[in-house]
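Researcher: Here's a chain I'd like modeled. Treat it as a single chain, no partners, no ligands.
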Amino acid sequence: MKKFMKSMVLATGLVMMVSPVTSALASTTQTATVSKSKWELKGGKWYYYDRTGKLTKGWAAINYTWYYFDSAGVMQTGWEQVNGKWYYLNSNGKMKTGWLQSGGAWYYLKSSGEMFTGWLQQGDSWYYMTPNGKMVTGWENFDGKWYHFKSSGKMSTGWVYDNGWYYLKSTGPMVTGWKDISDGYSTDRYYFNPNGKMMSGWQEIDGKKYYFAERSNSFGAMQTGLTLEGYILGRDGALMYPGSEMIQDGAKNIFSKLKLGQTRDEVLALFGDTYSTYHTNYVWNYTFKVNETDGSVEIVDSSFSHGDPFALGEGRYDVDLTIHWNEDEKIEDISILYFGSDHRIKLIDWKSLRWEWTY
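Model: Modeled as a single isolated chain. Structure tokens:
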């Protein structure tokens, strides 16, 4: 009996010893539950309590994500200005970084969340964000220079078509005036008006006329060293202005002295052979300079450039006469090349046409 009573007393003592510990553990667990950080939705607004149970205000990093709470502890969404800087918080309150489309416009937010303004480089591409943060598209003027931005916002370089062709430097500014442009195979010269638009067709620039291709792959390229609509374009592309009434009359006077069937002796009697630069059995050629004072003509050495419109255009001579002989050594055709008073190159050909026509 004594032994049983001792066991009861021992057991009771053990119970009394364990109960306070259990109670303390229970109390500790209850306290931890109350102080644990948590989100709370009240009145349709979100609040956050930190681990101490304190209501969060201002910036807070929660699970590696930044949120912003106003002075009342309400979680913010949308655009928020903090200390003069703009941030964007999505519908879950998370701070946004990188590209953002909002209200039909694009914005860029730094890794800190701050809205970006000014020039932005992304890889090899440049963008421009206005002081309001909006990404620019289309034409924009900076410090008196025009830039173009694609619909994606990327700054354009090279050729751009916008109701006409424009050219942007590799650094972005629009080109005006003369510009040599290479396609990797050849280089052509172009002219862009003060508004940056590429010119085509006939254009007068600084008192000189030029022609820029109006079609084909060379559209807009300045043309050089060719005859066009009877005009001569020099090696520098500028229209040459040879020709006059005196030259025109001199050419017709020379032509009037010749006729089909004339013999070589008759031609030699007229012009001689001293400066004749091209004589074969079937073709003779003479080149003349016309005296602009009295209209007289003089045979000159053409250095074998007979029949060359550019030699005429450069003023090496004024009239180019070609005589064709038949087997009987008599004239079978006569042609004269010269510039008329309208500055166009003319051809008088006996056999095909008896009157002048534009070359």
